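S1.2 Input.
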Amino acid sequence: MSGSLRRIGAMMLRNLYLLRGSWPRLLELIYWPTVQVVMWGFITQFFSASSAWLVQASGVLIAAVLLWDVMFRGNLGVSLSFFEELYSRNLGYLFASPLRPLELVAALLGISLVRTLIGVGGAALIAIPLYHYSIFTMGLPLLAYFSNLLVTGWAIGLMVAGLVLRYGLGAENLAWVAIFAVAPLSGIYYPVEVLPGWLQPVAWMLPSSHVFEGMRRVMFEGVFDWVLLRNAVLLNLLYLGGAVYAFLRVFRVARERGLLLHFGE
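S1.3 Output.
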């Protein structure tokens, strides 16, 4: 019995050491409950003060969920595709070929687009018979919002991939941590004005907040806000450009140090 307890204790101690040596894993323990409390707290606060909104908002929550999934899948489409190369220890071999780092980035963005179209497109079609709501009735604004949220997801995914190159696979959970970090600030299910005053300027620094505010204007007022779209596009250009630059810079350092062959499960 005592030997069994020692073995159990040893395995627990091993995992405690793993947690102690990996700040992303420690962050994850606290992070998910905190995000859920913050996001649903804002949703509850908004609904309690705006009950009439529920009557007017037929389908708006479904539209918000679908558009949020575009950004979510855009992020994971980039980061998880990159992780697959790391898990299989394939990254070093890829760059023994004529493949260039920028070509890898383009491929990651391309496969992310395909995965997002399949995932979100399927969910949007299922929503039609289940909830009698079609997001496609939004028309051309849907294309603008889809594109901007996808690019935002790409920027986050490339930043996460760069961090994993820098800190190793212990940081892979940042693929989920990073995307959900911006969720409460994006105004997915509630207007940005619901946020505390000191948080609102931070929210407006995100392309996603402009997209979701624009979505609600289209659905509630029938107005396509070009200013919100312009802001989202400019921010996306800034963030995606910065993410590509940061990824390529980290990649160059990793290749010079011979790190590309040291990743794997």
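S1.4 Remarks. The mean pLDDT is 79.
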